[in-house]
Amino acid sequence: MKIEQPFYRQQSFFIQAIYWIITFVAWFFFLNTFSRYHFFYLEQAQLFTGDINVSLSGWLSTYLTGCYVQHFGLPFVGPLLLAFLNTLIAGTVYFTLSHLGAKINGMIWSQLIPVLLTFMFFNHLYDLSGTTAFFLATLALSGTIIIKPFAARLIIATIFAPILHWLVGPAALLYAIAIVLFQLFQEKGWKRFVFLLPIVTASGAAYYATILGMTDSMTFSFLPNEYFHHKMRPQNVIYYSWFALWMLIVVYGWFGSHCIKSGKLRLLSYATSLFLVAAITWRGSLRYDDANSRLLKMITYYSLQDNWQQVFELTKDNHSNYLYIAYRNLALSHLGRLADDLFQYPQSGALCLFPMWDQSLTTSQLLSDIYYHIGDIALAQEMAFEGNTAQGNGGSPHLWKRLVDTNLIFNFPKVALKYIDLLAKTPHYQKWAESRRELALHPEQICNNSELASKRCFFGGEQHLRHFFGIDYDFRLIAEHCPENPVAIEYLGCLYLLGKELNGFQSVLDKFYGTEVLPELPKSFQQAVIILNEHQPEKWKDYKLSSETVKQFQAFRETFNRNRQSPYLRETMLRTFGNTYWYYFTFKK
């Protein structure tokens, strides 16, 4: 079946232009609404310097993806760029369908492809190079089908399929199968089957890519799994866009030339198609949108902006997620309220200050931020290094900056220059890198940088570069050498309180209370002092406890004694004293 005049040529150029503009705008608003912070997360999950490794399969799609993802850190740029790419994908799909006589809703159903690709985009383990590769494959498909001579089209498709595998990876098979399906409805007789050659050459390229080490395995050579985290198994939705393209070609190949003459039926078909695509978009967005990670992406975004008040607002009511609670406590510390307000919010052990390191980028970044804030530069550097190693994909710009700063603090300018050279290749971190280059070339100027100079007050010798004697020992030394920075003792004291290690807490008081680092006790520390000296109230005066704290404890003790036989003792105490260390110490496990 041959179509002399593709459907897209029968339409008014003005109407089509308006349609595609509306499509672009709709995609922008959709992506900006659902995934605004996901774009910032993706930008921080890779460092793109423009380096190209053409020996790897799919290098072109990886390179082009890095080119546009590196701009996702700018407000609204991410949704704009992906909206444009989705519109192009829908356009190339419709171009192909129009050559099959897509007289029935071809422009509407072409939107199904970017919709299905967006479901994968919601997953932070998905590599956007898969979407780029899909576009390049459909662009190649569009370029192939406009070639009129049969022999030329066959030769070009057969030769280009393996080349496309080298350029975009397994999406070459998407192209090869699509061109074969297209020819089934364009040619007759033996010509239909000779077009199986592009599948043969594309499959051969995929096989040899694995043999030559250009891909990790046959699965990554033949399937879109290549565009997902290599250590994780993707959901089946990763295949949907591929099958949907092939299905649309088959459907329009069979029915594309049929036209509904009745105006009412035609309008009904448009409305039905629009409803179905919208319903798939809505249901799929609810199912595949990674809502559980949306809060984390918001938190990490505001933490990188040093907007700790917003971080606190996002995490203040969290009861169970150690990662979010640790972010809240870090925000409280930045706001100067950690030791005062620690028990105003849900806490559950030492992990609320230092969550368990799980070798992920997210936890490594958080721990690096915590240790850097405290002044434990060695641990901050270690976590930054481990985070970049865990992330791969070039590492995280934030952590590369951390490695620059920690090496400048440790007076290793040559190491810092290595990371500076890396960041200087990027458009958004070049200015920052050059400012640090001046410090690396002239280390004596570091003392003029308030941030780095304040972190340089404690080195502890090489034996302390990797948490050699433990957090307790390190934090005490930091406090001794940097009395103007009370964060280390604040964190150490809170760590003892959350772990109910009152002997350790008492040793902190014995050494640091009344000194520059701890001139007076914050609220939670005062409450702990009462527990330590409950039967020696004369010692309370030594720590200058506030009258408010003393009165509150007396009320706590009276209420406890009055209700100690009640089965609802815990609930009764929680209502009035749930925000005190006394409640935490007595009832929290």
Main attributes of the structure:
589 residues; mainly alpha; 31 helices; 66% helix; elongated; disordered N terminus
Q: Please give the radius of gyration in angstroms.
A: 31 Å
Find the structural class using helix and strand composition: mainly alpha
Task: Report mean pLDDT, rounded to a whole number.
Answer: 89
Percent range for β-strand residues: under 5%
Number of strands: 0
The major beta sheet can be summarized as: none
Number of helices: 31
Terminus-to-terminus distance: 75 Å
| Share in helix | 55-70%
Q: Enumerate the spans where pLDDT stays under 50 for 5 or more consecutive residues.
A: 1-10
Overall shape: elongated
Overview of this protein structure:
- The chain is elongated, with a radius of gyration of 31 Å.
- The longest helix is centred in the N-terminal third of the chain and has 32 residues, at 13-44.
- α3 packs across α7, α8 runs parallel beside α11 and α15 packs antiparallel against α16.
- With 589 residues, the protein is mainly α.
- Helices cover 66% and strands 0% of the residues.
